[in-house]
Amino acid sequence: MPSVVALVVAAGRGERLSSERPKQYLPLGERMLLAHSLRRFTEHPGIDHVQVVIDPSDSALYEKAVQGFDLLPFVAGGETRQGSVRAGLEALTHFHPDIVLIHDAARPFVSSNLIDRVLDGLAHTAGCIPVVPITDTLKRLSARQEVTSGPDRNGLSAAQTPQGFRFASILNAHRTCGNDSLTDDAAVAETAGLPVAAVAGDPYNFKITSRDDMTRAEAMILPPMETRTGFGFDVHRFAPGHSVTLCGCSIPHNAQLSGYSDADVGLHALTDALLGALGDGDIGTHFPPGDPQWRDAASHQFLEEAHRRVKERGGRLINLDLTLICEAPKIGPYRGQMIARLARILDIPEARISIKATTTDKLGFTGRDEGIAAQAIATMTLPVNS
Questions:
Q1: What's the pLDDT band for 91 if we cut at 50, 70, 90?
Q2: In whole angstroms, what is the distance from residue 356 CA to residue 187 CA?
Q3: Is 235 known as a binding-site position?
Q4: Is 245 annotated as a binding residue?
Q5: Annotated binding residue 360
Q6: Which positions bind a divalent metal cation (predicted)?
């Protein structure tokens, strides 16, 4: 059997998609995008080794991405894609592989069947690449974005990776190419006069270059989601004191709230809203009032535990809407502080949190200034049937 090495090119910057980090290190599900591409090759029985070419400045991200994979030591890339591929090929010379498959890290959905087709195609040729037919009508655009006639799409196909080659042939082609601006290895092979055959590509083996591509990839890899809504309600009476704690913030007042833990009526209502959306009991179920360990406890612990249960189920908070009902204290001056505190507790953007206050026009126990009530609604996404 011929020896086969997969060379995964991951040295690009991918700044069209993210300015924070190269796209191959963006999260895709539970792992980085690069890890999904690598898994396809490390699990394939026909691949002997996997070599990755990276930008050395990304080495910390790379080490996180490849945890658990059995890989050859990474190779530092070059100024261009061709330079990176050439560096990877040169690093493989002491292995003397028969075949090399060169793959773009930003194609995380290459299938085992596609890898097989490329390997099979190399039985009688020096190079083989997967292609997909172009079905859309092609148009040229002027500098002013005016549409002009485009090339005839008949006979045109879009090239994908992995592109497979006889190792010695493609290494020599890269060494002698003289043109460092070619966009794929088939073009390098053609400049050296190497025959390159085509096999059927896979429309799911798309290259991630834009936010829309990433959204499509996330939809493919994440479980189907549904939206859940939970409602929470809580009440605490006033007792002698000098401040109340609402949403983790201390607010000066001529009384304090009395009750379970620190009696933070806002956080208690929010905790019940999260648990309600999960169908996971209520705050009393998880933190029994009679349990002495929760006496005078900070209520953010309850909300953090409810949020941990959301994340454990694969959920994500979309929105929190809290209404505080009281005659006093005035909530408005502290609304921003409370929203910021909730955002830190739950690690979600402040824009996803709403806090409102209202009175009951002197009616009922809140109207008599005997306590504070809170209503909360939490909206989240959860995997279907979770």
A1: very high
A2: 62
A3: yes
A4: no
A5: yes
A6: 234, 236, 268
